[in-house]
């Protein structure tokens, strides 16, 4: 419910939160952002809390959290008794997943670097070590 004296339009909220208008509508459909009140004209009417929540969502996404994880974080943020412990646990899980992804990307980078170094950059395509490696069924990813 919007109890603020100066209700904000969706465009103003989008600009101040640094997101697109369609993003706001999407988050409303996904239940990440409460449906706003409607003016008599039918236009959405937001309060300052919507901006704070959108910034929270954007920052959490920047840290690699999925929308489901963000939904959980938002719910946990209201849990005065167990919220902080659960938030830390969720952040630790995200950190482990990111570290695993970094290790995988480093492995991919190293493999690609080897292929690039082994390719002379000229000659027949069938002699290209990059193309041979990509077409070899025995190569494991």
TrEMBL record:
Residues 7-76 form the HTH merR-type domain. It comes from the Bacteria. Residues 88-115 form a coiled coil. The keyword DNA-binding applies. Gene3D superfamilies: 1.10.1660.10. Keywords: Coiled coil, DNA-binding, Transcription, Transcription regulation. Pfam families: MerR_1 (PF13411). This is Heavy metal-responsive transcriptional regulator. It comes from Rhodanobacter umsongensis.
């Amino acid at each position: 419910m919007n109890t603020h004296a100066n209700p904000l339009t969706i465009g103003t909220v989008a600009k101040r939160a640094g997101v697109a208008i369609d993003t706001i509508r999407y988050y409303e459909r996904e239940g990440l952002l409460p449906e706003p009140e409607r003016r008599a004209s039918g236009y959405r009417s937001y309060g300052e809390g919507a901006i704070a929540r959108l910034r929270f969502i954007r920052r959490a996404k920047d840290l690699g959290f999925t929308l489901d994880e963000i939904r959980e974080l938002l719910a946990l943020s209201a849990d005065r008794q167990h919220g902080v412990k659960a938030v830390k646990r969720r952040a630790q899980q995200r950190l482990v997943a990111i570290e695993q992804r970094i290790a995988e990307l480093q492995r991919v980078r190293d493999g690609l670097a080897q292929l690039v170094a082994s390719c002379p950059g000229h000659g027949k395509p069938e002699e290209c070590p990059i193309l041979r490696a990509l077409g070899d069924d025995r190569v494991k990813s």
